[in-house]
Amino acid sequence: MVDFTLPDLDDKKRSLKEWRGKVIVLNFWATWCPPCREEIPLFIAMQKKYAADGLQVIGVALDNKTAVMVYRQSANINYPLLIGDEEHVMQIMERYGNRMGSLPYTVIMDREGQFAVRKLGAFGRDELQYVLEPLLMTAAAPSKLP
What we know:
Blueprint: E1 5-7, E2 13-15, E3 23-29, H1 34-50, E4 55-61, H2 65-75, E5 81-83, H3 86-95, E6 105-109, E7 115-120, H4 125-137
Parallel strand pairs: 3-4, 4-5
Antiparallel strand pairs: 1-2, 3-6, 6-7
């Protein structure tokens, strides 16, 4: 897991390692990105369906805080949203394999923090479930948990 720290919408510093031991869907997005907005309902549904099985969706917005707060409310987003300035978020995306900085970009990590999938572009429901279900069936290794 390539750790990073960004503030959430309440200005609380959040570190990716907080979610160690979970299957992480890390979605880089922006309110001005139509494909990003189209896939958010899917992430909301997956978080609701699989949270008890150890899934954690995390959104990283390449946007301004006010726009993200308004969008979170209107879309009823049920997972953490982190935000940072363009330069910082672009550096994080590059470390996660997105050198172009294109959106949407999603990285899925297993419970041990290993990359399972990196995808440029929007996920479809069947495709996302196909990736997530085997990862969620694998128990976390006790030695890897904090």
